[in-house]
Fold these 4 entries.
Entry 1:
Amino acid sequence: MNVLPFFLCFLLFSTFCSPSLSEHCNPHDKKVLLQIKRALNNPYLLASWDPKTDCCDWYCLECDPTTHRVVSLTMFSDDRLTGQIPSEVGDLPYLETLLFRHLPNLNGTIQPSIAKLKNLKTLRLSWTNLSGTVPDFLSQLKNLTYLDLSFNNLSGNIPSSLSSLPNLEALHLDRNKFTGSIPESFGMFQGKAPDLFLSHNKLTGTIPASLGNMDFNTIDLSRNMLEGDASMLFGSKKTTWEIDLSRNMFQFDLSKVEFPKSLARLDLNHNKIMGSIPPGLTGVDLQFMNVSYNRLCGQIPVGGRLQRFDYYTYFHNRCLCGAPLESC
């Protein structure tokens, strides 16, 4: 009697009917995920998180294709999700991406257990109702390349320890309620200077001179209460793409500034910047520029893209003239 057909039938039956044989999900990770679901009061966003199914097939997460450990947890765009970030997220040791975004009813503080996620590369906690301060323990996450805490209700001082993250490529702290000054250490990032977004806060004081040592690709300090000199952010040898200093109280002589050839976006509106527009700016391939509402004087240099911008780019200055403004 040939037993092969019976064996094959048994194997197929076992595969389809026994979850333990077909499931890839790590048992520890599955247990933690179900705890997270319960902690968030079983939101509709996590309806696919059925304990009878393989967790690697659930929405809002990804498993490593080889180890089958959970490496990404992403929850976003759900007004019905309420509560705080569950402490259990810290029990997913292989997480590389953690995202809670566009969740207006997510409250509380930044969860301390996140400090245990030593493999984390991307942390995005944005567009939520999180409050409190930025904890120093984030500086322990040495593999972080992207840190986004924007559009929250975070307050207090910006911790200087964030500059010790050696692999950071982007730091978003914009649209919060931070006070105090920009840390001196932000001119001494351990690795390459990250894209730095500090706009729409309540930061005061002057820019640390140390920031002049950094070659930021993008730096946005707009809509704060910063003052004094900001010319150290520029330089002909830098490779900066965007500088936004708008709606502060900066005061420096623009005519003495040398601009990077790479600069594509420059926004200086609503400050106390004086001097004239330097001729060197005609050699920069700008896509956007706004120097309105300052104290600039003199003729707008002719050449480059400077005449392609409209009247509103230059208006409300002390005595600027020349196209596209009135002739001198």
Entry 2:
Amino acid sequence: MLFRCHLKRALPQKVSCRFCAVMGKLQSKLKYSTYKYRPDGFRDERTQTKAFQEYSPAHVDTVSVVAALNSDLCVSGGKDKTVVAYNWRTGNVVKRLKGHEREITKIACIHKSGQFFSASRDKMVMMWDLQGSSQPRQQFSGHSMVVTGLAVSPDTSQLCTGSRDNTLLLWDVGTGQCAERASVSRNLVTHLCWVPREPYILQTSEDKTIRLWDSRGLQVAHVFPAKQHIQTYCEVSEDGHKCISCSSGFGGEGCEATLWDLRQTRNRICEYKGHFQTVASCVFLPRALALMPMIATSSHDCKVKIWNQDSGACLFTLSLDGSGPLTSLAVADTVSLLCASFSRGIRLLRVDDSRGLELQEVAGF
């Protein structure tokens, strides 16, 4: 019996652009490669040429974080020490806010409002209101090192902050006063996320663990089994039943996202492996996109991947060549994602299921 095997080497992907000025914005046709994974395990490589709109940059340096404020606006921050509110549908800057003295590290939004919080390497947290002045509405000072975690309670009355100083602080949003303080040795906070409709806060750490905190007294309620690598980020599903965390790594070691049960068992449910560098962000995708539940991840390997939440199968990979490490990922609406990058600002991505599941880069700013 004769066996034949065809091996296709992955060649460096080429990106070519043609630019022309159109009504005050830069428009181009972008050619890029994507990979769709078939049920039989083989990979289809597709080269797409799509209309692409490049708007004026929101930032002049690396974008560290992006978050969706509502169905039209996003808020971002980065090394230029500026918080920018941006209409991602029109490509217009709504407001530029200055107040921090160093790089913006985290942003937490009060959804369907004009209010949000920003954290910085200057150890400060600021509350902003787009309907108000360009000055912070409230300031929160209490950490001795860079603030690396922000989470707003479901009723918006409390704010939890975390830092590399191993400390979590719980604040009264109205008064700006610290209500609770908790510290765990070696607990260098990387991200915080409040569980919807619950008093619990999920936290990832450089000590490779994920902790669940009870905001009533700010006590550790549960510690998930430790991973092999630093946990960089976490997100909780809308129903509060599951959460995902992601890992640092290099060369495919680590570099995974993990799905956990937040209910009775609190066990690990599934892992998503396929990135080759640190996974910096992970999100649950809206159920309106497909019949199956899905998650998306972004990585320092310049790739955004969509996964089948239940099976762990990678459904689609988009390579954002030239973007450098991808630093943050946010759901903008039912079909759109916002992806912050080290070198190419913020990328607007769109999920298209008209010809099978695809993820397309449609704009940048």
Entry 3:
Amino acid sequence: MESIFHEKQEGSLCAQHCLNNLLQGEYFTPVDLSSIAHQLDEEERMRMAEGGMASEEYRTFLQQPSGNMDDSGFFSIQVISNALRVWGLELILFNSREYQSLMINPINEKAFICNYKEHWFTIRKLGQQWFNLNSLLTGPELISDTYLALFLAQLQQEGYSIFVIRGNLPECEAEQILGIMRVQQQQRPRLIGEDEAQTSAGRSAALSQSEVVFGVEDEVVDEDDELKKALALSRQDIDVEDEEADLRRAIQLSMQGAVMSNKSSESEMGNVKSGSQAAGSAAGGQRAGQNEALTAEELRKRRQAYFDRQQQQAQPNIPQQPDTKSSGGSGSVNIGSEEDQQQKPSQ
């Protein structure tokens, strides 16, 4: 198989590849085929000029682009036919009535050229075996004798124009080697770009799979983050509730301490008991409704102010002790003074 010459597709130069694969060598270049196309254009121009260079048909012909070649590298069947004529080869339409009337078995021919929508490729017999030398394939494709007729019929159904090559093809290395031995093809060649397409498809599939995996991982990470946030918020709520509970307990303890201190102070103050108890209960009732919104520092300050007021109220009612240094007469004077002090409030 390595001895078979096979040009692969480059641009739109399928006509060049078709001719070189047929002749089994680099016989034609794009420049060679372009010169043949220009010669054909000049011959057509001269034939049109015979009807008059001032005619409308001639001016229209000059304005039209070449029908034998274009900028993409396509060449017409006339260019291929003239190129093969240099080697003494002739093209015959395979599905024409003249050829079909001959009823020739395709395996007895030497080569075929096929064309469909500006694409050209060669089917040639090398030794005793047929090969598809399509430039769009990665290599020559072995065709069995029984499959050749079916392959040509399939190409006709797909719209291909098939031409039979008549004449003596130039000698080549592949013809000599395959003339003494037969080859077996283990793996059929693929279309050029098919491996790349499968590779790119595999890459895209792997990429999409990895994206799915990453997406699942991202979703798991997002769920973990949301769970952590929810736990953090719940902890904050618990901490806030604990702080509020501690504050309520501190307020209750302070209230109990205030009540106990009030009771002890009332027992010592005697006459001020009822007034201070009423004031303490009223202040305690008001404080019970307000202390929940107070801080510990404000609560301490208010308690201190409350005790200060009680001490100020209790100082005028404390009895004065007699002066032990004074004489007996002075005792009567002090008693009189106490009676005067008791009568002053009544006055």
Entry 4:
Amino acid sequence: MAMKNGGVSSGGLIVSFGEMLIDFVPTVSGVSLAEAPGFLKAPGGAPANVAIAITRLGGRSAFVGKLGDDEFGQMLAGILRQNAVAVDGVLLDTGARTALAFVTLRADGEREFMFYRNPSADMLLTPDELNLDLIRSAKIFHYGSISLIVEPCRSAHLKAMEVAKDAGALLSYDPNLRLPLWPSVEAAREHIMSIWDKAEVIKVSDNELEFITGSDQIDDESAMSLWHPNLKLLLVTLGEKGCRYYTKSFHGFVDAFHVKTVDTTGAGDAFIGALLCKIVDDRSVFEDEARLREILKYANACGAITTTKKGAIPALPTESEVLSLVKGA
């Protein structure tokens, strides 16, 4: 069952493909799941977070994926609509549940995950169920790697990428490694890399860089080992240390904003959403280092603000919040 659409924002359309789920976040940081006295229900799933990050900042986005036709699925579809994300690519599955994730918050705000997907609705999206007209209308098509783990969703993911690319979209990839979901470490690395050379914008965290390269060095040499000829921009996010950027012509580092971190969930999604929002109608930034640095400073600010509250979607900033942090610094 397909959904009907929501609100209107400005600029080229960014379509985000993949999973949306419920994160259960402990009410207390620094305890194990078993020790947590209670949990806060928070909508999540990296591609959905990115779609909402974009509309929060005034951009246009759509989400493509499948939810369970259950109370959580209806709630998540409602959250997309409330945030002006187009939902004409969202389906509800009557035979499967919406995915759940229990997230442990360590004392430093970093996370560990335990997932309930057996199988969840997002894993059951088929190629025939894709809204191809919506995908063809994307100026940027953004995705992760969780949708590559099992069939039929893997085939749907590959078809959606192909259709978007053929229609002229820029392909954006954030692998968003979640090892507990993969059958093995080897399978994770193999499938994450299987679509590597298709993307024109790739964002990896420092941990993902280590995982993919098999090296514990977070340096230019390690990052550039991931370069491929189709790539326009490679980003390595370094958490509270900022980010590194690499293009065909230049590379460098942009410092982070220092804030009181409560929960790092969604910070990377806010960062990539902000970047995509700023480049969707202006691809000349790949050749303009000063402008790119300005955009990455803005994206770093978005990521920083997102860490100051619990949960991803409630913490995603508006443009005015970002600009006040940038100006304040």
